[in-house]
Write a structure and sequence with these properties.
alpha/beta; six-stranded mixed beta sheet; five-stranded antiparallel beta sheet; Rossmann fold; 2 domains
Length: 290
């Protein structure tokens, strides 16, 4: 057994696929393949998976996620059809239009998930800039990046979890979580930059994060209401939907729950306006406008 092997844990019934990040004596440090989970386990507790059975491409990570991507693509096509019908009806002629989807700033504490996320943003035509930033440094990074990038949507995610050996307090205490305090700090810095939840949308958290604390800090959407593991790319799905939801429309978690793998147990939030704008007449280089 060596670094890079794909494994499951016998003691957990092989429920989650991991990749061995490194080995320390007789223990392996593990990184979830589909879920934002860092763990450690004795080598004797691990079972190697056949690499041919591990689909590392994000589109193949699970049938549920592939369905989420399909629904996102369908919603974009429906929005385009609605725009064109509106123009044809009002002008009674076939005029074109241009699109200004919401811009995403994505900070991720995991470089592998960041690469997957940026690939999918590109496939979904979502304008996005992504940065690998360790969770403890995200607040400082946002303080520097927000004035430069001026995003419509901010995603702060990475790894989190309820600590096995809590110093004090229970699930209600931020000290019981690996990185929830760092995510809260990042959200607070972002809200100092822009207080209006519709002018800048924030999606925050990872596996088992302190959902209530993130909402109190100013997040629009956060994980994890039931303190469960969330799919690695669930935050991306919410960001992509908001990027292509009209500024005239308000959506709630009930409207987008089907776009996530882990549902309302994994993510929740407050009603939020979209960040997409239609412009007329059509122009060739939309990026010149945004």
């Amino acid at each position: 057994m060596r670094q890079g092997d794909y494994v499951t844990r016998k003691s957990y019934g092989g429920d989650v696929m991991f990749k061995i990040e490194r080995i320390e004596q007789l223990k392996a440090i593990l990184r979830g393949v589909d879920y934002r989970l860092l763990a450690d386990a004795p080598l004797v507790d691990l079972t190697i998976s056949n690499p041919a059975d591990v689909m590392d491409h994000p589109r193949s990570s699970s049938p549920e996620f592939r369905e989420s991507l399909r629904r996102l693509a369908v919603s974009q096509m429906q929005l385009q059809e609605k725009n064109q019908l509106s123009i044809n009806h009002k002008q009674n002629i076939d005029k074109s239009y241009f699109e200004v989807p919401g811009k995403v700033l994505h900070l991720d504490g995991d470089p592998t998930y960041l690469r997957k996320s940026m690939q999918i943003y590109g496939e979904l035509r979502v304008p996005a800039e992504g940065f690998y930033v360790p969770e403890a440094q995200m607040a400082d990074a946002l303080h520097r990046l927000l004035p430069q990038i001026r995003p419509d949507i901010v995603v702060v995610t990475g790894h989190d979890g309820i600590l096995k050996h809590r110093k004090s307090g229970g699930p209600s205490s931020l000290s019981s979580y690996k990185n929830s305090q760092n995510f809260v700090n990042a959200v607070q810095i972002a809200r100092q930059y822009e207080r209006n939840r519709d002018s800048m949308i924030i999606i925050a958290g990872a596996c088992q994060s302190h959902f209530e604390a993130l909402l109190r800090a100013g997040a629009n959407f956060a994980s994890s209401p039931s303190r469960i593991l969330i799919h690695a790319l669930d935050p991306l799905c919410i960001a992509a939907k908001l990027s292509y939801t009209s500024v005239k429309d308000t959506i709630s978690m009930l409207d987008i729950v089907e776009l996530t793998v882990t549902g309302l147990d994994g993510l929740g939030g407050v009603e939020t306006r979209g960040s997409y704008r239609m412009g007329v007449p059509g122009i060739q280089h939309t990026e010149d406008y945004v």
